[in-house]
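Can anyone check this?
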Amino acid sequence: MYGTLGTITNIHTMDEEFLYEINYNEILYFEHSLQFLSEYDGTVFESETVEVELMFGIGDLVYVKGYGDEIFKIVGYRTELWRYKDDAWEEVIYELVRVRDGEWMESSADELKLAVSKKEADQHLQNIHIIQHIAGMGAQKNASAPMNSQKNEKKTKPMQQEIIDSLLDLYNDYKGLYDLFGDKKYKEMMDVVIQYLKKMSRLP
C-alpha cells in the first residue's frame, strides 16, 4: 500500500480477521494492505527510525559556555541528521533566548549547563507567590486594624507572629537544601524570604 519495507513483529485477531504489527509499531494493518516482498514489483522505500536523547527541555534555564553567569531559556530545538557513506550521526541544536534582554542564539548540548529545570523554575515562581501572599496577608491584617484599638492589636500580633513563623519555616527548608546541595537557587529563595521577614518586622 505504501511501498515501504517492514518486518511483521506480532499478529492479532479481531472479529475473525488478522491484524499485523509491523516493526513494533502501534498501528495494525489488515492482510489486504500487505504483500510479500518477493511478490512486490514496485519501488521499495527504506525507512529509518532514529532515537535522539534530549539533554534539556523547552523552558529549562541554562548557562552557555563562554557567557559566564548569564542565564538563557530554551525555547525550542531541532534535530540534524548527518549521513555519509562510511559515517552517520545525529545532533540536537537548542534555540535559546537570554533572560536579561531576550537575545536569541543557538547552541549544542555540550555547550550548555542546566541552571534550573522548567519544573523547578515553575515551582520557585510558585513559592515566591506563596511568600508574597503570606507577607501580604500580614500587611493587610495590620492595615485593617485601628491604631488605637488594643483589642484589635492583641488579635493582630498573634496573626503577625504566625505569618513570621511560616516564613521562617520556609527559610529553614531552603537553608537545609542549600547546605545539602550548595545550589545558588536555594540561596536566592532564602534571600527572598529574608526580604519579606524584614517587611514584616517593620509592620506595627
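Reply from J.R.: I decoded it. The beta strands are 8-14, 17-22, 28-30, 61-64, 72-83, 88-98, 104-108, 112-116.
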